[in-house]
């Protein structure tokens, strides 16, 4: 599944992601800068904050309450497109989705 990571400065990097993996894991395992994943995917750190293209909202893993609460701790501005990367599982329907990275994760 092709995902496009875009930095806050607009630099894009295409990554060949595996369905079933989460976005944080995919970014970290491909060495994408700008996403940290300090807690290892437990929705406990908010250093995997990303902005997902609203056009794909219908195919995203639904947001659990713990994720909404943890996003309050994110370093960068939280918007309607904000998600914790570790809480979104990749599916084939996400082909070509742009994952925007925030200015900062701390
Ligand atoms: Fe810690 Fe996602 S990796 S909240």
UniProtKB/TrEMBL annotation:
<dbReference type="GO" id="GO:0051537">
    <property type="term" value="F:2 iron, 2 sulfur cluster binding"/>
</dbReference>
<dbReference type="GO" id="GO:0140647">
    <property type="term" value="P:P450-containing electron transport chain"/>
</dbReference>
<dbReference type="GO" id="GO:0009055">
    <property type="term" value="F:electron transfer activity"/>
</dbReference>
<feature type="domain" description="2Fe-2S ferredoxin-type">
    <location>
        <begin position="1"/>
        <end position="105"/>
    </location>
</feature>
<dbReference type="InterPro" id="IPR012675">
    <property type="entry name" value="Beta-grasp_dom_sf"/>
</dbReference>
<keyword id="KW-0408">Iron</keyword>
<dbReference type="InterPro" id="IPR001055">
    <property type="entry name" value="Adrenodoxin-like"/>
</dbReference>
<protein>
    <submittedName>
        <fullName>Ferredoxin, 2Fe-2S</fullName>
    </submittedName>
</protein>
<keyword id="KW-0001">2Fe-2S</keyword>
<dbReference type="InterPro" id="IPR036010">
    <property type="entry name" value="2Fe-2S_ferredoxin-like_sf"/>
</dbReference>
<keyword id="KW-0479">Metal-binding</keyword>
<dbReference type="Pfam" id="PF00111">
    <property type="entry name" value="Fer2"/>
</dbReference>
<dbReference type="GO" id="GO:0046872">
    <property type="term" value="F:metal ion binding"/>
</dbReference>
<comment type="similarity">
    <text>Belongs to the adrenodoxin/putidaredoxin family.</text>
</comment>
<keyword id="KW-0411">Iron-sulfur</keyword>
<dbReference type="InterPro" id="IPR001041">
    <property type="entry name" value="2Fe-2S_ferredoxin-type"/>
</dbReference>
<dbReference type="InterPro" id="IPR018298">
    <property type="entry name" value="Adrenodoxin_Fe-S_BS"/>
</dbReference>
